Amino acid sequence: MTKSFDVSDVALGAFASVPPSEKLDHLVRLLSTWGGSDKFFMLVQAILKILDPFLRFRAGAQLRMGLSKSAASPAAESCRKFAGIIGDSRTSWRIWGLLPIFQWLISLERTPQPTRRHLQIERLQGWSMLGYYPFEHACYLLSHGIISSPRFKSKSLSMWSCRFWLAYVALQLFHLREDRTLLLAREHALRKAKGTGSLEKGRADLRRKWDAFWNELVENAANLPIAIDASLEQGLFKNELWTTVFGLIAAIAAFRGAWKATALPSPVSVTDDETTEEKTTTET
């Protein structure tokens, strides 16, 4: 028998030949979360902002070499506008940002922390965010003409919101210092431990935690000069390119952290020690 040929199957069922993609599944998981989608657009925005000066420089170079009649770069202007739209959208998405902060602070008082310092640092971080969001929301609404105030200016509100953000970033660096102490203690304990079935699992978990530690350190070290620059009336850098570069570094680290956080757990391999333990238990 010859297989019937249906044109509709070929046209409408074209995706039958497309294999499932783990990367696509992973990206959908990432973008399905509020934080994941924010990190994704943060990266896109940072790339657009770094492309803007590069494209303008290229247009100027082409003019000097006689390859172009104008120093204007439509592509650079498009990148700048798109980055602005994304930045505006990300700010509007954070309009309910206080809700998870309330949730975090409530949970913090009911969840045991590794040390007293961890607890105090996270308390201060929570309160700094309680200061950050109202100023950011007020600045956003004021700058778009949704509210009006003859007393407050959007630039002043923006600086105060960034000062609270600066406090959060600085506290996070202290938090990471405390995390490093705990990781070193854990590493020392694993080195002294004898061969057991869970030893390799503990080492793998430690490697993941060290990876997350260094990733967070890079992200917050890059955010620190940006926060300082935005907190000062005259700024920290005369050249805006510095904040753009630091923003790209922070965005890459943030996206990498979110990508790893939404990854499916890798299958646990059975070690020789675990096999031996299982055999011993069975024989007993």
UniProtKB/TrEMBL annotation:
Single Gene Ontology BP annotation: peroxisome fission
A GO CC term assigned to this protein in UniProt: peroxisomal membrane
Keywords: Membrane, Peroxisome, Peroxisome biogenesis
UniProt keyword annotation of Cytoplasm present: no
Domain of life: Eukaryota
Protein name: Peroxisomal biogenesis factor 11
Keyword Membrane (UniProt): yes
Pfam families: PEX11
Lineage, top ranks: Eukaryota, Fungi, Dikarya, Basidiomycota, Agaricomycotina
Protein localization: Peroxisome membrane
